[in-house]
Amino acid sequence: MHIEKNVFESVIGTLLNIQGKSKDGLKARKDLIAMGIRTELGPLKKGKRTYLPPAAYTLSRKEKKTLCKFLSEVKVPEGYSSDIRRLVSMKYLKLKSLKTHDCHVIMEHFLPIGIRSILPEKVRSSITMLCSFFKSICSKVINPAILPMLQKEIIITLCELEMFYPPSFFDIMVHLVVHLVKETQLCGPAYMRWMYPVERYMKILKGYVKNRSRPEGCMVERYIVEEAIEFCTEYLSNVQSIGLPKSQLVEKKEGKNLIGNKIVAVSRVERDQVHLYVLHNENEVEPYVEIHKDVLRGLNPNRNENWIVREHNRCFIPWFKDHIYSKYYSDPASITERLRCLAYGPSFHVFSYSAYAINGYTFYTKEQDDKSTMQNSGVTVVAEAMHISSVKDLNPKFANLSYFGVIERIWVFDYEKFQIPIFGCKWVENNNRIRMDKSGFLQVDLNRVGYKDESFILASQARQVFYVNDPKSTKWSIVLFSNKVIDENTGDQGDIDVEIESFTRNDQDENIISNDSYIRNDHNEGKMAIMKSIIRARGKGYLKVSIDICLDGDVPLSSSLIRVDDDVGYLKVSLYDNGTCPSKQISILSSKDKGPKI
């Protein structure tokens, strides 16, 4: 986890030219000249300043804004990560206050998407492959057979990075990436060994402290009490505990309303749509579905299967109710109470919520999502669909398809003896509106809505996804799956990837390194080398400060700052306590009330 953090800081720091994190600078360019490689990137003298030409990894100001704007618009589900938007500074075009888990999430999920529309193809491909390697090596389940392939691919990826990045980029942390595959072979998956669960538990222990003068004693006493209560609870497993709250994990799996509680009346059309879907997804009703279809086939031998399905959907509800109640009146013991309630149907008055927890996920409606800092309205479901080539097709095919959409309504229908939560969703049309691009990203067009007559699903079938804007096209959104996996035996695994994408290299990428120039030809936004400066006292109340400002506004930031007033606004310039002194100097008058002025 710390290797991933340090590698990410080196990559993003060099891309955004973050002071203290960037591996590119005057000394790095002089190293290239001394080694006799990439001499076209050598520093150039422009008057009294030193100019560094843009390398293949150097982003223009427009590209920096594109990357930072993408990260500033990301909204993730509850428990996925911290709020990524708070980590982005659009003013200085950099990332700030990054924790280890933030680096983990951005490196594996968002950085490959954020650079889709920037950088040359060869550099972008190498960075994407590095991110894919970390995603594969941090997966919950790893096939040992692919580990040798992972080892081979990461070596090629690092060699490609050496073709673009300066030698100063390849410190010991980047080198240790080569050994992660061997470590996985010897010690197992990384998620079994990293510190994220321990750091989360430390937060729990800190919450035990009620007397700040004795923090260790508070933790010990509270831990012993909880251990004793848990032992008694497990010992009396068949007894309902009194006074102890129900586990949030159990409530989130079984279903719990979170926000809003209104009673609304639904139309007969919506009620029948929901009721038909519930009947088709009940195991007890499944035999009666086949019986009804056989009855329709016997009464209409000349009709094709497509007509049988449509007629079944139209008249199954009244037929099922009459059939069950006729059997119930003749032999009540043959019909279960649940089957009788299903045949009778739900009430027209339903409970409406804005947030609901089920299957370990927290779901919001789109309206609630717009008011929240999180994105919990994305949903996907795998359902069986009938495929026909044309209207005249007599033999339709049935297959399972994944559908993606956004939750618009959360209703709980009352079936007298039990309740069933239902999600009303706006589904994306599958025909040419869902695609997988050559980079392996799943894209959907959220503006193309389909299946308006089949908008409802059972809440128990829902699986959470979320969408991020595709930087290459505003028309498309990229689908990402929630990383939350709930298992009743192991509990909340928190940071485990659900979708494991194979770390493979396309054949067309084998020769991606060519004899192209290592200088960016699409823009000339290089940077001026920043010289370290010194402060000399020049009489009472005056300071002589030696500085050298970059032409593109990329200036270093540190704890000791002064403000330089220019036409655009304020530039923050660092003061250093050692280094060489350029010839250009600025006199600063120190003021107690308003601060230093030029």
Q: Would you mind describing this structure in some detail?
A:
With 598 residues, this protein is α+β, with helices and mostly antiparallel strands. It has 16 helices and 26 strands. The strands form 7 sheets. Strands 6, 7, 10, 11, 12, 13, 14, 15, 16, 17 and 18 form an 11-stranded antiparallel sheet that branches. Strands 1-2-21 form a 3-stranded antiparallel sheet, with no helix packed on it. A 3-stranded antiparallel sheet has the order 5-8-9. Helix 4 crosses helix 5, helix 5 packs antiparallel against helix 6 (147-164) and helix 14 crosses helix 15. The chain is globular, with a radius of gyration of 31 Å. This is Transposase. Residues 137-241 form the DUF4218 domain. Pfam families: DUF4216, DUF4218.
Which regions are unreliable across 5 or more consecutive residues at pLDDT < 50? 487-503, 507-515, 533-598
Rough outline: globular
The percentage of residues in β strands lies in 15-25%
Would you count the extended β strands for me? 26
Any idea what the radius of gyration is?
31 Å
Number of helices: 16
Described by strand count, sense and barrel closure, the largest sheet is: 11 strands, antiparallel
* N-end to C-end Cα span: 46 Å
**pLDDT averaged residue by residue:** 81
This entry's quaternary arrangement is: single chain
